[in-house]
Design a protein that fits this description.
It is a lipid-anchor. The chain is α/β, with parallel strands linked by helices and 452 residues long. 14% of the residues lie in helices and 12% in strands.
């Protein structure tokens, strides 16, 4: 027993220290090594090579170490890992190659054959993407560290074989879209960290396989809308962090608001960004009436977080919602008239609107910036048809100011919030365009007769 505790010099590489207990170990950390030592004892179970100056992991570096269970290569200058570098290490359980900032690409077969690996560190490696199939066959993996990289997107089914993965760390990357199949197969995932990315949208089925997820961190992203339907599969969720986003608190937030009434876990605040009169308030604590109507949302300045500094912010004028106008303010008969978010007017003519929708190459006459703004003003002209707008252009403004917009009556009239007053897509009142015309034109006819 005394002999087993004494460092063994026989067969031990230069600048390394070798031990037999608790497991045969080769410790070569912080030795200024530029290459992986040769003559590593074949019976070694643990090899520590962290904090050196290694640049390449060759296919022959560990080819004889079939008993290896732990391999630490973090904090080096590794820029290339040859194909088959870890081939034959069927007993390997933990592999740490994190903090190698020049390792920007990985071979699709780099980890092939590591069927017993349960922990893989790939943090701070400068990775911009992961190749298709890179984790294929790694059925035992439980902990995957991918934080602090430059990952822009993840291919569908990247984690498909990782049915036993419990922790997935993806924070401090540059991911923008969480797609439907990005996390498919992660049926046992317990913790998902996606904070401090650039996420602007989570697709509806993105969390479909995450029925066992307990912790979800999405704080400090560029989210404005997240639906309750997207969150419904997270039946085991206990800890949710959504702060640091720019939430739109109108009808688009209602399904998420409803979901929070069923959610029993812990959650951060969701500070409203728009409308102005709700800015800074917690979405979860709003009243139902606060979420009626829809708000015109111009391009929102978002905060993009640098992968190196948590507090680094970069302004962006990207519009997370695109050009789509929410339809939650309109009655069922009026929804067909919304073709895009570029200030197209409601014509109150179902046949005409149906014809417009059926045309795949619909083109709208060009408008100047000022013209578009006028047609979306708070006045009644903002909700009337183009033809009516032209017929009223020369009327006395005093006759128009007191009018309220009217539309054809709907069977189900949805309430629209009176706040904010700049809500250009909410329609209120009842009646028809003909009533507005008669109200305006009859006094004009009477004036004309009196003057004649």
């Amino acid at each position: 027993m005394w002999l087993n505790l004494v460092p063994q010099t026989e067969g031990c590489p230069a600048k390394c220290v070798c031990y037999s207990e608790p497991r045969p170990t080769v410790a070569c950390q912080q030795q200024g090594l530029f290459s992986i030592p040769t003559e590593i004892p074949v019976r070694s179970q643990r090899i520590f090579l962290q904090s050196n100056k290694l640049t390449v992991v060759r296919s022959t570096s560990f080819s004889s170490c079939h008993n290896l269970t732990v391999l630490w290569l973090y904090s080096n200058n590794i820029s290339h890992i040859e194909a088959g570098a870890f081939y034959g290490l069927e007993k390997l359980e933990e592999l740490d190659i994190g903090d190698n900032s020049n390792l920007r690409t990985i071979s699709p077969t780099a980890f092939r054959g590591l069927t017993k690996l349960h922990t893989l560190h790939l943090h701070r490696c400068g990775l911009s993407e992961l190749p298709v199939g890179v984790f294929r066959g790694m059925f035992s993996l439980q902990y995957l560290y991918l934080q602090d990289n430059n990952i822009l997107t993840l291919h569908d089914d990247t984690f498909l074989d990782l049915a036993n993965l419990t922790y997935l760390y993806l924070h401090n990357n540059k991911i923008k879209i969480v797609s439907d199949n990005m996390f498919r197969g992660l049926i046992n995932l317990d913790r998902l960290l996606l904070h401090q990315n650039r996420v602007i949208y989570v697709q509806p089925r993105a969390f479909s396989d995450l029925g066992k997820l307990k912790s979800l961190f999405l704080f400090f992203n560029n989210l404005t809308v997240l639906t309750g339907e997207t969150m419904d599969p997270l039946v085991s969720l206990q800890y949710l962090r959504l702060n640091g986003n720019q939430w739109i608190c109108d009808c688009r937030a209602r399904t998420l608001w409803d979901w929070f009434k069923r959610f029993k876990g812990s959650s951060s605040e969701l500070e409203c960004s728009v409308p102005d009169f709700l800015a800074g308030k917690d979405l979860k604590r709003l009243k139902s009436d606060d979420l009626e109507g829809c708000v015109e949302t111009p391009q929102i300045q978002t905060n993009l977080f640098n992968s190196k500094a948590r507090s680094g912010k970069f302004p962006s004028t990207e519009n997370p919602l695109g050009d789509t106008i929410p339809r939650c303010c309109l009655g069922d008969n009026d929804k067909s008239s919304i073709l895009s978010g570029k200030s197209r007017q409601i014509t109150n003519n179902p046949l005409k609107e149906k014809e417009n929708i059926s045309k795949t190459k619909y083109k709208e006459p060009e408008r100047t910036k000022n013209d578009t703004r006028n047609k979306q003003s708070d006045g009644p002209l903002g909700t009337l048809s183009n033809n009516l707008d032209k017929s009223l252009e020369d009327l006395n403004p005093e006759l128009i100011d007191n009018l309220e917009p009217s539309t054809a009556p709907n069977k189900k009239k949805k309430k629209c919030s009176k706040k904010p007053k700049s809500d250009t897509h909410c329609l209120k009142g009842q009646g028809s365009t003909l009533q507005v015309l008669s109200f305006l034109l009859i006094p004009m006819i009477w004036i004309s007769l009196a003057m004649s």
